[in-house]
Amino acid sequence: MPIRDEEIIHRCFELALKAQGETSPNPMVGAVLVKDGQIISEGFHQQSGSGHAELNAINEAPTSLEGTTLYCNLEPCCHTNKKTPPCAQRIIQEGITKVVISNLDPNPQVSGLGVKMLQEAGIEVITDVLREEGEELNEVFFKNMRENKPFIHLKIAQTLDGKIASSTGNSQWITSEESRQKVHLLRKTYDAILTGAQTIRSDNPALTVRLDGKTEAKKRIILTRSAQLPLEAQVFTDEFSHLTFVAIDEAYTNEIEKLKSQGRQVITFNKTLESLSQKLFSLGICSVLVEAGQKVVTSFIEEKIYDRISFFVAPKILGSGLESIGDLGFSQINESILLTNIQTKNIGSDFYISGKRRELCLQD
Protein backbone atom coordinates (compact mmCIF):
# COMPACT_ATOMS: atom_id res chain seq x y z
CA MET A 1 0.00 0.00 0.00
CA PRO A 2 1.53 3.36 -1.00
CA ILE A 3 2.29 5.87 1.72
CA ARG A 4 -0.23 8.71 1.94
CA ASP A 5 1.13 12.22 2.35
CA GLU A 6 -1.37 12.97 5.12
CA GLU A 7 -0.22 9.93 7.10
CA ILE A 8 3.41 11.04 7.12
CA ILE A 9 2.56 14.68 7.83
CA HIS A 10 0.62 13.43 10.87
CA ARG A 11 3.81 11.68 11.95
CA CYS A 12 5.64 15.01 11.55
CA PHE A 13 3.10 16.56 13.93
CA GLU A 14 3.74 13.79 16.46
CA LEU A 15 7.47 14.30 16.26
CA ALA A 16 7.12 18.07 16.56
CA LEU A 17 5.08 17.71 19.75
CA LYS A 18 7.93 15.83 21.43
CA ALA A 19 9.49 19.26 22.04
CA GLN A 20 6.32 21.02 23.15
CA GLY A 21 7.24 23.86 25.49
CA GLU A 22 10.94 23.71 24.59
CA THR A 23 11.31 25.50 21.25
CA SER A 24 10.16 29.09 21.89
CA PRO A 25 10.61 31.45 20.10
CA ASN A 26 10.90 28.86 17.33
CA PRO A 27 8.06 26.69 16.01
CA MET A 28 7.63 22.98 16.69
CA VAL A 29 8.76 21.03 13.64
CA GLY A 30 9.04 17.35 12.78
CA ALA A 31 10.57 15.78 9.67
CA VAL A 32 10.42 12.34 8.07
CA LEU A 33 12.49 10.90 5.20
CA VAL A 34 10.90 8.26 2.97
CA LYS A 35 12.73 6.15 0.37
CA ASP A 36 11.28 3.35 -1.74
CA GLY A 37 8.05 3.54 0.23
CA GLN A 38 9.72 3.14 3.62
CA ILE A 39 10.50 5.58 6.41
CA ILE A 40 14.29 5.63 6.74
CA SER A 41 14.81 8.49 9.18
CA GLU A 42 13.01 10.94 11.46
CA GLY A 43 13.92 14.10 13.34
CA PHE A 44 12.45 17.02 15.23
CA HIS A 45 13.56 20.44 16.46
CA GLN A 46 14.34 19.77 20.10
CA GLN A 47 14.89 23.26 21.48
CA SER A 48 15.72 26.80 20.45
CA GLY A 49 19.27 27.01 19.14
CA SER A 50 19.54 23.29 18.39
CA GLY A 51 19.45 21.61 14.97
CA HIS A 52 16.34 21.94 12.85
CA ALA A 53 14.10 18.96 12.26
CA GLU A 54 15.10 18.49 8.60
CA LEU A 55 18.81 18.48 9.38
CA ASN A 56 18.33 16.10 12.29
CA ALA A 57 16.47 13.67 10.05
CA ILE A 58 19.11 13.99 7.32
CA ASN A 59 21.95 13.43 9.78
CA GLU A 60 20.25 10.29 11.14
CA ALA A 61 19.68 8.73 7.71
CA PRO A 62 21.49 5.39 7.33
CA THR A 63 21.84 5.55 3.55
CA SER A 64 22.20 7.88 0.58
CA LEU A 65 19.32 10.33 0.21
CA GLU A 66 19.29 10.34 -3.58
CA GLY A 67 15.68 9.95 -4.69
CA THR A 68 14.29 10.47 -1.18
CA THR A 69 11.11 12.37 -0.21
CA LEU A 70 11.30 14.71 2.77
CA TYR A 71 8.16 15.45 4.76
CA CYS A 72 8.03 18.35 7.23
CA ASN A 73 5.24 20.34 8.78
CA LEU A 74 6.89 23.72 8.13
CA GLU A 75 8.66 25.11 5.09
CA PRO A 76 12.43 24.51 5.24
CA CYS A 77 14.35 27.67 6.04
CA CYS A 78 16.71 29.23 3.53
CA HIS A 79 18.16 32.28 5.29
CA THR A 80 21.40 32.43 7.27
CA ASN A 81 20.33 35.04 9.81
CA LYS A 82 20.13 32.53 12.66
CA LYS A 83 22.19 30.29 14.91
CA THR A 84 21.69 27.10 12.90
CA PRO A 85 22.54 26.37 9.24
CA PRO A 86 19.78 26.71 6.62
CA CYS A 87 17.87 23.60 5.63
CA ALA A 88 16.89 24.22 1.98
CA GLN A 89 20.50 24.30 0.77
CA ARG A 90 21.28 21.02 2.57
CA ILE A 91 18.20 19.36 1.09
CA ILE A 92 19.42 20.28 -2.38
CA GLN A 93 22.94 19.04 -1.66
CA GLU A 94 21.68 15.65 -0.47
CA GLY A 95 19.85 14.89 -3.71
CA ILE A 96 16.38 14.77 -2.17
CA THR A 97 13.91 14.85 -5.06
CA LYS A 98 10.59 15.69 -3.40
CA VAL A 99 9.50 17.75 -0.40
CA VAL A 100 6.02 17.64 1.14
CA ILE A 101 5.07 20.48 3.50
CA SER A 102 2.10 21.29 5.69
CA ASN A 103 2.63 25.05 6.12
CA LEU A 104 4.62 27.81 4.52
CA ASP A 105 6.71 29.63 7.10
CA PRO A 106 4.99 32.90 8.18
CA ASN A 107 8.42 34.40 8.90
CA PRO A 108 8.87 37.05 6.16
CA GLN A 109 12.53 36.04 5.87
CA VAL A 110 11.41 32.60 4.72
CA SER A 111 7.79 32.65 3.54
CA GLY A 112 7.76 31.03 0.11
CA LEU A 113 11.48 31.58 -0.42
CA GLY A 114 12.44 28.14 0.83
CA VAL A 115 9.96 26.54 -1.55
CA LYS A 116 11.20 28.71 -4.42
CA MET A 117 14.80 27.70 -3.79
CA LEU A 118 13.88 24.01 -3.80
CA GLN A 119 11.80 24.31 -6.96
CA GLU A 120 14.54 26.20 -8.78
CA ALA A 121 16.85 23.28 -7.97
CA GLY A 122 14.41 20.89 -9.68
CA ILE A 123 12.86 19.48 -6.51
CA GLU A 124 9.14 18.72 -6.58
CA VAL A 125 7.39 20.56 -3.75
CA ILE A 126 3.88 19.88 -2.44
CA THR A 127 2.44 22.33 0.09
CA ASP A 128 -0.70 22.76 2.22
CA VAL A 129 -1.03 19.12 3.30
CA LEU A 130 -3.17 19.28 6.49
CA ARG A 131 -2.51 23.02 6.47
CA GLU A 132 -5.12 23.93 9.10
CA GLU A 133 -3.89 21.27 11.53
CA GLY A 134 -0.34 22.45 10.99
CA GLU A 135 -1.25 26.01 11.78
CA GLU A 136 -3.13 24.92 14.90
CA LEU A 137 -0.02 23.05 16.05
CA ASN A 138 2.06 26.23 15.81
CA GLU A 139 -0.63 28.81 16.58
CA VAL A 140 1.74 30.68 18.89
CA PHE A 141 4.48 31.00 16.24
CA PHE A 142 2.02 32.08 13.53
CA LYS A 143 0.61 34.82 15.81
CA ASN A 144 4.11 36.02 16.70
CA MET A 145 5.24 36.22 13.08
CA ARG A 146 2.09 37.80 11.66
CA GLU A 147 1.39 40.39 14.34
CA ASN A 148 4.58 40.78 16.40
CA LYS A 149 2.53 40.06 19.53
CA PRO A 150 2.45 37.25 22.06
CA PHE A 151 -0.23 34.57 21.92
CA ILE A 152 -2.61 35.03 24.87
CA HIS A 153 -4.53 32.04 26.25
CA LEU A 154 -7.16 32.54 28.96
CA LYS A 155 -7.75 29.54 31.23
CA ILE A 156 -10.85 29.27 33.41
CA ALA A 157 -11.81 26.53 35.89
CA GLN A 158 -15.48 26.76 36.80
CA THR A 159 -18.56 24.92 37.97
CA LEU A 160 -21.34 23.87 35.62
CA ASP A 161 -23.22 27.05 36.51
CA GLY A 162 -20.24 29.27 35.74
CA LYS A 163 -18.78 29.92 39.21
CA ILE A 164 -15.05 30.16 39.95
CA ALA A 165 -15.46 30.53 43.71
CA SER A 166 -18.11 30.30 46.39
CA SER A 167 -19.72 33.38 47.90
CA THR A 168 -17.07 33.20 50.66
CA GLY A 169 -14.23 33.18 48.12
CA ASN A 170 -13.37 29.49 48.45
CA SER A 171 -12.14 28.04 45.13
CA GLN A 172 -10.02 24.98 45.94
CA TRP A 173 -10.64 22.70 44.29
CA ILE A 174 -13.37 23.18 41.70
CA THR A 175 -11.98 20.78 39.12
CA SER A 176 -10.53 17.28 39.27
CA GLU A 177 -6.93 16.19 39.77
CA GLU A 178 -6.85 15.19 36.10
CA SER A 179 -7.83 18.71 35.04
CA ARG A 180 -5.19 20.21 37.27
CA GLN A 181 -2.62 17.93 35.66
CA LYS A 182 -3.75 19.17 32.25
CA VAL A 183 -3.19 22.74 33.47
CA HIS A 184 0.41 21.87 34.34
CA LEU A 185 0.86 20.56 30.80
CA LEU A 186 -0.54 23.85 29.51
CA ARG A 187 1.82 25.85 31.71
CA LYS A 188 4.75 23.92 30.31
CA THR A 189 3.91 25.06 26.77
CA TYR A 190 3.79 28.80 27.51
CA ASP A 191 6.60 31.28 28.10
CA ALA A 192 4.82 32.99 30.98
CA ILE A 193 1.88 32.63 33.35
CA LEU A 194 -0.04 35.78 34.26
CA THR A 195 -2.34 36.33 37.21
CA GLY A 196 -3.76 39.22 39.19
CA ALA A 197 -2.73 40.60 42.57
CA GLN A 198 -6.05 39.50 44.12
CA THR A 199 -5.34 35.88 43.19
CA ILE A 200 -1.93 36.15 44.88
CA ARG A 201 -3.54 37.64 47.99
CA SER A 202 -6.42 35.16 48.25
CA ASP A 203 -4.98 31.88 46.91
CA ASN A 204 -1.19 32.27 47.20
CA PRO A 205 -0.60 30.05 44.13
CA ALA A 206 2.83 28.71 43.22
CA LEU A 207 2.18 28.96 39.46
CA THR A 208 4.85 26.34 38.85
CA VAL A 209 4.95 23.43 36.42
CA ARG A 210 4.69 20.16 38.35
CA LEU A 211 5.04 17.11 36.11
CA ASP A 212 6.62 13.67 36.47
CA GLY A 213 7.70 14.38 40.03
CA LYS A 214 9.63 17.50 39.01
CA THR A 215 8.88 21.14 39.74
CA GLU A 216 9.90 23.81 37.25
CA ALA A 217 8.74 27.32 36.48
CA LYS A 218 8.16 29.64 33.58
CA LYS A 219 8.10 33.40 33.97
CA ARG A 220 5.36 34.50 36.38
CA ILE A 221 3.70 37.87 35.87
CA ILE A 222 1.60 39.51 38.58
CA LEU A 223 -0.72 42.28 37.37
CA THR A 224 -1.42 44.97 39.98
CA ARG A 225 -2.51 48.55 40.50
CA SER A 226 -2.11 48.97 44.24
CA ALA A 227 1.24 47.16 44.65
CA GLN A 228 -0.34 45.57 47.73
CA LEU A 229 1.31 42.18 47.42
CA PRO A 230 2.12 39.91 50.39
CA LEU A 231 5.87 39.66 50.95
CA GLU A 232 5.50 36.01 51.97
CA ALA A 233 3.69 34.95 48.75
CA GLN A 234 5.13 31.79 47.21
CA VAL A 235 5.94 33.51 43.93
CA PHE A 236 8.29 35.88 45.82
CA THR A 237 9.88 33.39 48.21
CA ASP A 238 10.34 30.09 46.39
CA GLU A 239 13.38 28.93 44.42
CA PHE A 240 11.94 30.44 41.24
CA SER A 241 11.40 33.95 42.61
CA HIS A 242 13.85 35.31 40.02
CA LEU A 243 11.24 34.41 37.41
CA THR A 244 8.53 36.55 39.05
CA PHE A 245 7.72 39.97 37.57
CA VAL A 246 5.17 42.57 38.68
CA ALA A 247 3.34 44.38 35.86
CA ILE A 248 1.96 47.83 36.65
CA ASP A 249 0.77 50.92 34.78
CA GLU A 250 3.66 53.36 34.39
CA ALA A 251 1.43 56.15 35.75
CA TYR A 252 1.56 54.65 39.27
CA THR A 253 4.95 56.06 40.11
CA ASN A 254 4.66 55.78 43.90
CA GLU A 255 3.59 52.16 43.69
CA ILE A 256 6.42 51.40 41.27
CA GLU A 257 8.96 52.85 43.69
CA LYS A 258 7.46 50.78 46.49
CA LEU A 259 7.79 47.59 44.46
CA LYS A 260 11.37 48.36 43.51
CA SER A 261 12.24 49.08 47.14
CA GLN A 262 10.98 45.58 47.94
CA GLY A 263 13.34 44.15 45.34
CA ARG A 264 10.60 43.31 42.84
CA GLN A 265 11.30 42.99 39.13
CA VAL A 266 8.90 45.50 37.59
CA ILE A 267 7.40 45.62 34.09
CA THR A 268 5.68 48.91 33.29
CA PHE A 269 3.16 49.54 30.54
CA ASN A 270 1.00 52.37 29.28
CA LYS A 271 -2.58 51.94 30.62
CA THR A 272 -3.91 49.16 28.34
CA LEU A 273 -3.48 45.42 28.17
CA GLU A 274 -2.52 45.92 24.53
CA SER A 275 0.42 47.99 25.76
CA LEU A 276 1.31 45.28 28.26
CA SER A 277 1.11 42.66 25.51
CA GLN A 278 3.51 44.62 23.32
CA LYS A 279 5.87 45.15 26.25
CA LEU A 280 5.94 41.44 27.04
CA PHE A 281 6.74 40.61 23.42
CA SER A 282 9.58 43.12 23.42
CA LEU A 283 10.98 41.22 26.42
CA GLY A 284 10.98 37.96 24.45
CA ILE A 285 7.77 36.54 25.89
CA CYS A 286 6.02 34.90 22.93
CA SER A 287 3.11 33.27 24.74
CA VAL A 288 1.14 33.90 27.94
CA LEU A 289 -1.25 31.67 29.85
CA VAL A 290 -3.63 33.82 31.91
CA GLU A 291 -4.79 32.13 35.13
CA ALA A 292 -6.59 34.85 37.03
CA GLY A 293 -9.79 35.92 38.67
CA GLN A 294 -12.92 37.40 37.17
CA LYS A 295 -11.72 40.98 36.98
CA VAL A 296 -8.49 40.27 35.09
CA VAL A 297 -10.05 37.73 32.74
CA THR A 298 -12.95 40.05 31.96
CA SER A 299 -10.53 42.89 31.20
CA PHE A 300 -8.64 40.73 28.69
CA ILE A 301 -11.94 39.81 27.02
CA GLU A 302 -13.23 43.39 26.99
CA GLU A 303 -10.03 44.67 25.40
CA LYS A 304 -9.94 41.71 22.97
CA ILE A 305 -6.43 40.83 24.11
CA TYR A 306 -6.68 37.06 23.84
CA ASP A 307 -6.37 34.42 21.15
CA ARG A 308 -7.70 31.31 22.84
CA ILE A 309 -9.91 30.69 25.84
CA SER A 310 -10.26 27.33 27.59
CA PHE A 311 -12.83 26.26 30.16
CA PHE A 312 -12.40 23.36 32.58
CA VAL A 313 -15.98 22.71 33.69
CA ALA A 314 -16.66 20.59 36.76
CA PRO A 315 -20.06 18.82 37.10
CA LYS A 316 -20.84 20.88 40.18
CA ILE A 317 -23.51 23.48 40.89
CA LEU A 318 -22.85 26.24 43.43
CA GLY A 319 -25.80 28.54 42.95
CA SER A 320 -24.42 31.72 44.49
CA GLY A 321 -20.77 32.57 44.00
CA LEU A 322 -18.34 34.48 41.84
CA GLU A 323 -19.02 34.32 38.11
CA SER A 324 -16.11 33.32 35.89
CA ILE A 325 -16.66 36.31 33.58
CA GLY A 326 -18.07 39.68 34.56
CA ASP A 327 -20.41 42.03 32.73
CA LEU A 328 -19.32 42.60 29.12
CA GLY A 329 -22.06 45.12 28.42
CA PHE A 330 -24.00 42.91 26.01
CA SER A 331 -27.79 43.19 25.97
CA GLN A 332 -28.61 40.95 23.00
CA ILE A 333 -27.70 37.33 22.25
CA ASN A 334 -26.41 38.33 18.82
CA GLU A 335 -23.73 40.44 20.53
CA SER A 336 -22.21 37.34 22.09
CA ILE A 337 -18.60 36.37 21.54
CA LEU A 338 -18.46 33.31 19.31
CA LEU A 339 -15.46 31.02 19.60
CA THR A 340 -14.18 28.97 16.68
CA ASN A 341 -11.84 26.02 16.11
CA ILE A 342 -13.50 24.32 19.06
CA GLN A 343 -11.79 21.49 20.93
CA THR A 344 -13.74 19.39 23.44
CA LYS A 345 -12.87 16.42 25.61
CA ASN A 346 -13.60 14.77 28.93
CA ILE A 347 -10.82 15.09 31.49
CA GLY A 348 -11.47 13.00 34.58
CA SER A 349 -14.95 13.93 35.75
CA ASP A 350 -14.71 17.34 34.06
CA PHE A 351 -15.49 18.70 30.63
CA TYR A 352 -12.92 20.72 28.67
CA ILE A 353 -13.83 23.15 25.92
CA SER A 354 -11.36 25.41 24.16
CA GLY A 355 -11.78 27.79 21.26
CA LYS A 356 -10.11 30.62 19.41
CA ARG A 357 -11.48 34.15 19.33
CA ARG A 358 -13.86 35.12 16.57
CA GLU A 359 -16.48 37.75 17.24
CA LEU A 360 -19.56 37.68 15.03
CA CYS A 361 -23.12 38.93 15.17
CA LEU A 362 -25.22 35.79 15.04
CA GLN A 363 -28.29 35.90 12.83
CA ASP A 364 -31.55 34.11 13.67
What would the average pLDDT be, to the nearest integer? Answer: 91
SS-based class:
alpha/beta
Which range does the strand content fall in?
25-35%
* Largest sheet, strands/sense/barrel: 9 strands, mixed
Distance between the termini: 48 Å
Spatially, the strands of the biggest sheet line up as 13-12-11-8-14-6-15-18-17
What fraction, in percent, of the residue positions are helical? 25-40%
Please give the number of β-strands. Answer: 18
Q: What characteristic shape results from the CA principal axes?
A: elongated
Count of DSSP H/I helices: 12
**What are the secondary-structure elements, in order, as H or E?**
HEEHEHEHEHHEEHEHEEEHEHEHEHEEEE
Radius of gyration: 23 Å
List the uncertain runs.
360-364
Q: What does this molecule look like?
A:
It is a single chain. The protein has 364 residues and is of the alpha/beta class. 28% of the residues lie in helices and 28% in strands. The chain has twelve helices and 18 strands. The chain has helices at 5-17, 53-60, 88-93, 113-120, 131-137, 139-147, 177-189, 197-203, 234-237, 253-261, 273-282, 294-302; strands at 30-35, 38-44, 69-74, 98-103, 124-126, 151-159, 163-165, 192-196, 209-211, 214-216, 219-223, 244-249, 265-269, 287-290, 308-314, 322-323, 337-347, 350-359. The chain has a nine-stranded mixed β-sheet with strand order 13-12-11-8-14-6-15-18-17, with helices on both faces. The chain has a five-stranded mixed β-sheet with strand order 2-1-3-4-5, sandwiched between helices. A two-stranded antiparallel sheet has the order 7-16. The chain is elongated, with a radius of gyration of 23 Å.
